[in-house]
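Please, why this fold?
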Amino acid sequence: MMGKQERSASLFYYLRLEDLIPENHLLRLVDRHIDLSFVRERLRPFYSSVGRPSIDPEVLMRLLLVGYFYGITSERRLMEEVRMHLGYRWFAGLGLEQEVPDHSTFSKNRHGRFRQAGIFREVFETLVERCVAAGLVEGKSLVVDGTMIEADASGDSRVPRERLGEVAQVSRTVREYLEELERENPVAEAAGEPEQVSTTDPDARWCSKGGPARMAYFDNYLMDAVSRVIVEVEATPASYPQEARAAKRMLERVQERGLCPHSVRGDMGFGKGEFLTWLVGQGIAPHIPPKDHRRRIAAAITQEDFRYAPEEDVYYCPAGKPLRYSAPARRNQAHLYRSTKEQCQGCRLQPQCTTGPYRTIAVSWHEPARQVVRSLVGTPAYQQSHRARYRIEGLFAELKQRLRLSRVRLRRLWNVAEQFQLAATVQNIKRLLAFLTRPAAPPLPSPCCEGRKV
């Protein structure tokens, strides 16, 4: 006989949340292996010693991590999910009889105590230290790259920079942005600032990377090549010159924390001369294709065809005529070497060499570092790091597809940085748990049992 389920509610239920969470559940593993109690101690100075007790900051941090683990980007929706999901309640330490925090609580703490304490970065760095202590991260070979994340602003919100003062009268966001610029650079605007600025999110930049242009940020990762643990993360406006600067800042921070990288792998976007020179000076092998602006025209004489005589500081052309030092080109960060009209007149190679009355070559100030990079190309270590460089793309795919952070939800650079730090923390936790809970290798057979039939 067909049964029928009657919907009825009992007055009392006897259960424990602890008994309902499977032993191999992700949140149970996080609770077992990751200690987050330091969050409470770190934020204690930012709370008053009198008054009504507030929500435990560790609970708020655990709820935020749940949102990033399961791709719940909206805090309002996250609180709705916590009300219904027993596992989320158990991980946060909220019993069935306890009220779930309001979504506005996150905003108040994020813009107040959490930002003052820098707790999101501290949580990220603590997890990296945990990975190092567990033997997961070696930190010798690193990979650097960035991905573009769409900002919460449209291209239609952009106005010319000279109109920002007018817009600031009605927009608090723009007013705060101009005040920050004044504090950081009161004399003049920083070089490279865009001509148009978004009034919705002034820190975002109009950028195109493999698709249509949009307002965006760059999420820069510095990854351990072996374990794929993110050892550093940096948020920058979506501007290509920012990539190498972010890479340098990330490397400086990991060195301060005790890591000693031997090599760094990146794409050509990180091949700027200044960055390469800094890497060589730090004793780090730059496995990065250098940006080479030398002319490469078929059937023409290029800079590679000139021979340098260091004892004379002179370049000799293929016809044997000297090009002597002329002047520095500070804008291009290069040294200029020139021949004379008399030397080039009547030269049989002039049609292949130059269309002007004399030949000029520009030698980058960072040419020694570029030579170091060229000498590394093709070596076994370079080829190995070249293969590892593509592993970082998997982290970006996970970031956008699993964590659903293809578009940031908050505005301004500091808010975006916090989102990137939390996302990188969650990615590292997953790798640390996989390392700590990996199955033990089966024991080798005893030598005394070899050849014996069982």
